[in-house]
Amino acid sequence: MSEIMLQQTPVVRVEPIWREWVARWPVPSAMAAAPQGDVLRAWGKLGYPRRALRLHECAQVLARDHGDEVPADVEVLLSLPGIGAYTARAVACFAYGQRVPVVDTNVRRVVARAVHGKAEAGNPAARDLVETEALLPAQIKRAAVFSAALMELGATVCTARNPDCARCPLPSCAWVTAGRPASEVVRRVQKYEGTDRQARGRLLDVLRDAHGPVERIRLDLAWTRDPGQRDRALDSLLVDGLIEQTAEGLFALAGEGGAGV
């Protein structure tokens, strides 16, 4: 749960909802038995709500095929709905203590600076896993702790904007040795206001707060600034399976529209 919730979402937003989910659905079979609509409502404002549906699908597979337990093998984890390369390795490493490379933005930054002498890592590449695995201690127990430490180092000391090199525990760093050259990566500021994501969120809010299917006019009123954008957002929600349309032309959260069309 936590690994999927934390994708592109800060811990401060995830923690309270994660605690609610763990209390409500302590094992996969508990979530698997819950309606999709309940899971989407419980997701709240975490964003990227498709993750909630993937978690629900994953819980169903775990309950049906894996004895209601999360597997430890990376390849088996990768076969589960919504589980990608990073999440599979994070679960194998942090939950089961395996010696597998776990590469996120923070880890890539530390490796870029300490090993390659670059301020930023640039775009993700296949070599990231290979390079990170080469740094892991041979002893399995130490490797899991090292992976956590490497991630924490990037998050708290070797940060993107104001790295605190005086506190860095590494014995050497190619970036510092090179005089801390400036980043060559052009940062793009991601906006939210006025985007399709915001429009989708407004439409979902209407359906989450409703006690049943709603008429199209209620969705139209939820996003009036750009009808074309609203239509695009609505279509994408239908395609993603987050909402459904009833035979009467009403709209509802996934699983709450009856037979649909």
Automatic annotation (TrEMBL):
Enzyme class: hydrolase
Gene3D superfamilies, alphabetized: Helix-hairpin-Helix base-excision DNA repair enzymes (C-terminal), Hypothetical protein, domain 2
Domain HhH-GPD: 5-156
Names of required cofactors: [4Fe-4S] cluster
Family designation: Belongs to the Nth/MutY family.
Stored SMART domains: ENDO3c
UniProt entry tagged with the keyword Nucleotide-binding: no
Annotated CDD domains: ENDO3c
Keyword vocabulary terms for this entry: DNA damage, DNA repair, Glycosidase, Hydrolase, Iron, Iron-sulfur, Metal-binding
UniProt cross-references to PANTHER family, sorted A to Z: ADENINE DNA GLYCOSYLASE
Species annotation: Nocardia acididurans
E.C. code: 3.2.2.31
Catalyzed chemical reaction(s): Hydrolyzes free adenine bases from 7,8-dihydro-8-oxoguanine:adenine mismatched double-stranded DNA, leaving an apurinic site
Keyword Iron-sulfur belongs to the record: yes
Protein name (database record): Adenine DNA glycosylase
InterPro entries in the cross-refs: DNA_glycosylase, Endonuclease3_FeS-loop_motif, HhH-GPD_domain, HhH_base_excis_C, HhH_motif, MIG/MutY
